[in-house]
Structure formats: C-alpha cells, structure tokens
Amino acid sequence: MRLAAVQYRPPKAAPKEARARLCDLVDEAGSSGARLIVCPEMATTGYVWMSPDEILPHAEAARGPTSRALGLLAAKHRAWVVSGFAERDGEHLYNSALILTPEGQLAGVYRKMLLYDLDHTWARRGDRRVLVETELGVMSPSICMDLNDPGYTLHLAQHRPKVVAFCTNWLEQGLDILPYWRERLGRWRGWFVAANTWGVDRGVRFYGRSAILNPKGQAVAMAPPEGDAVLIAEAPDLAAK
User: Is the pTM here over 0.85, yes or no?
Assistant: First the structure.
C-alpha cells in the first residue's frame, strides 16, 4: 500500500491557477500508485489573510470546484484524497479539509478545531473530530495546530486510527520539527502523512519538509525545505482488505 504527501505552495489569491497545479501533483501521486494522497492546508488560496472579507472571494463550498476537480482524480486513481481548503458554509468561513473517496465522492469535511493566530483573523473554529473508515483502516484527518491540542493527542490514544492525514502550513521556526511531532503524537502508533507548504506568504515563512512517518516514528520520506514535491512511501501493514 502506498501513501503520498504533496508539498505545494499555491499562488496567492488565484484558486483556479492553484487548483490546476495542485491537480497535476495529485495526478502524479496517483500515477505512482498511492492509495492515500494528502495535500497541504489551504491548498488553493495561500494561508495569511487579514479579514473574512479579504478571503471570502476565494473561499468555496465543500462541493465546490476543488472538491469536483480532486474527486475526478480520486476516482481516476482509486485513491483517497485529503486536501485543505478555505470553506464557505453560508455566512461562515472555516479552515477545512476535504475527504474524498476512491469513487470520487465527498466522504466528509473536517474543520480545524485549534485555530492559530492567523486563522482567528477570518475563520470559525470547528466543533468535532472526524474518523473515516477506509480500506487502509481508520483514518483521522487533522490540520496543523490541531497537533498542539492535548485533546487531539487523547483522540489518537482513544481511537487508535491507522493513519493520520495531516494537512499543514507549518511555520519555519529554526528547529527540527520531527521530534516535536513525535512528542505530540504521544503513544499513538500509526502512519503520519504530513503535507506542508513552503516559501513566504506576507512575511511568514513556512517549513516545507513534508514528511511521512511510519508507526515507529521514523521519517521514511521527507521533502526539501523549498519546492513543490510528491512524497511516496510504502506501507505494507496497510494492505487492502
């Protein structure tokens, strides 16, 4: 069973262009045989926004153009696809992740529960965690700051999903982040697929270095600090039932 993490820096405020490039990377991952493909947080808009009014023109519904485009690729490659996006639900905005099935259908949406300072300028907090039954085993989608939430560490310990699909825009802080991620995952043992962005958005620099960690906490694949990339890792213990 193959897992994929897509490292991607979307053009700012250009979702149509961003979606096209994101789809190219997801298609590459699917063509490599990945059965789960994870994309970054806010993968079609960029991350730093000053107000709801500023991001509103670029936000979309859960069944919007990003869901449709990625759903076609999920069906083409018979893969699960998880991707961050700016969600508009009526009057409300969320930092969310799409969850698409190998049939290309929307299985659900996860809304980030622990917001970072740069989320508070525009997004509402999500109110529930999500577990998804897949042929790989149970998957838990999460978004960036969620990993700092003791409630999420407890969630992993209680439900013991086989895979965490981690959409992130993790900031560059001058530190090796892997030891911290391992600490936050606690005693949970599973596959951790972290898809990050890179580069600078309004003066905020991102870490890059997307990674796939095996159940021992070892990085079996890791991207460079800059540049779009597709990471592939073999997960033999997740063989399809």
Answer: yes
